[in-house]
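In this supplementary section we document a worked example of the pipeline. Step one takes a protein sequence of length 639 as its only input; no multiple sequence alignment statistics are reported here. Step two produces a three-dimensional model, which step three serialises into structure tokens for compact storage. The input and output of this example are shown verbatim.
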Amino acid sequence: MHKLQYIILFLSVTCFGQIQQLDEVVLQAQRIQSSINPVSITPIAPDSLRLKQEIGELLQSVPGLFVSSQQNFSQDTRISIRGFGTRATFGIRGIKVLLDGVPVSTPDGQTQLDHISLSTLGKIEVIRGLASGLYGNASGGVILLKSAAIKNEQLLAASVGGFGTRHFLGSYGKRKEKQKFRAVVEHKKYTGYRKWSAYENTLINLSNTFTFSSKRRLSLDYAYFNSPKALDAGGLTLSEVNQDRRQARQRNLDYKAGEKVGQHQFTARWQTKKWTAYGFYTQRNLDARLPFENSGQIDLNRNYYGLGVQHDGRQGKWLWQYGVEAAAQLDRRIRFNNNLGEKGSVTLNQREGFYSLGAYGIAELLVSDWRIRASLRADTHQIKLNDFINTNSATRNLAAFSPSIAAFYSISKNINTYIRWSTGFETPSLNELSANPSGAAGFNQLLEPQRSQETELGFQFTLDSVDGTLTLFTTKTQDEILPYELDAFPGQNFYRNIGEVNRKGIEITTVIKMTKAISANLAYTYGTFTARDDKELPNVPNQQFSMGLIHLFGATRLAVDVRHIGKRFADSNNTVEIPKFWPVDMYAQRRFGQVTGSAGITNLTNAYFYDNIRINAFGGRYYEPAATRQLFIRLRLQL
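The serialised model returned by step three reads:
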């Protein structure tokens, strides 16, 4: 394994000697409109959005970022960046996700990606590292999704694939001088590799942009998501995996584990030359069945909304932005006993509220060949609970100041370097607080926020035919939060602070333009993520490597993706090691007039690995096997 590290490092350094000068690009994830980026940001180009099936597949090539649970649609895609977000038992925690600058994440730090259409995305930017000074609570990393430009385009698309995969899409776009409109309808259906892993959903997305002048623009968006079925096959023991990796956990079958989801989302964005403002409202209903009796069914009605405004300015050698953001989240959570899939008596009935107010400022100063950038954000959060059964109502107030400072220096026209110190602040989510290990209603009062500090040193190279970055980071977190299970409540997740965690690592990226027809993207990460007892953080690989190769054969485009995921552990005591693996995916695409045909094979080598690991699962039920080799075909017709 050490040989592999040296080979990859040698290839990367060799590539740095051949890099070309690229045009300056303003990366929007850093908020301030600057041509430099003294922060580790990975942009994903628009072309790469046309061959993949899911957002998680696009993000797998980002160094320091780990994607799991892409085949359990009840748990949704899980993402961690430098170990932040690893505690998520479903969805995403600790990482801020935004779509066109509007938060997708809830105020308490939870995110689901199931309602976002990949077909409408134009590009993605990922901040690897702490960003609470920019985005506030739960910003251990940031994923900024940007919608594709609206075109005069009408298209139909259909995909079919292994394990009962079906995907149908219709899109209508109309562009006028003062108005742009787009409507997208999608329907997905999947039988599943494992028993009891089927899902089905429908998505409707409407976008309307009005241009009043060259400096004023209003965008209105509406998204509807309906998932009447997303089944959860559950975690298996290693002996069960060896017996039949496609089976479901028996308790998940007995209790009919899974969920139904319905969501409406409205957003509005107003832009002028110097001012940007947004407002949003989201209403989400979740009906979930968990694989146990006591409180094993959940009805969750969630409403969250917010608004924000920011101002950009520049004068002389100064560049700045300041803004204010406010958001509220109201959850009505009702738990019932799960009588083998049927609703039993009410065990919990409470209203939970999370209210957030934040203000920030960013300033950048040019001093000779140096750029100095500093940011400061102040956030205040109020968490409230009203218990309608018992007398466990409570209120908690939390506040944080999140500073950061960076210095950027141009060593030469082709080589830049920066050093950055930043901070992070992450509150427990409402779901985590309401998981009370005492078995009573009300919040777990012992669960505290986690706070982090990070120092990062980066180099950016642009020379002859390669673009490259090299990043070193060290992060210290106090009161890290992790999930665990109890014998008294099998299958239910609880959360606790485990103390201090230290993260250290190196990240390398290279983009190589070999010829006009051949290009390659490489990314490598090596890191240690250890707690005070020198135990490694569970479900965080110590090494990751990815290589994407694209070859154009005339009108045909061929892409091959190779990844390596190093060893990781399933438990906090590091007694259960998850084997490393090498998945390979292949894609091909060709256009025939108005028709574009695509085909792909995921897990080409038919490797046996795990789609998801359930951290600290009771009884050794850590493993959710990933699908074996899978073929899909997609046709896209422009009308």
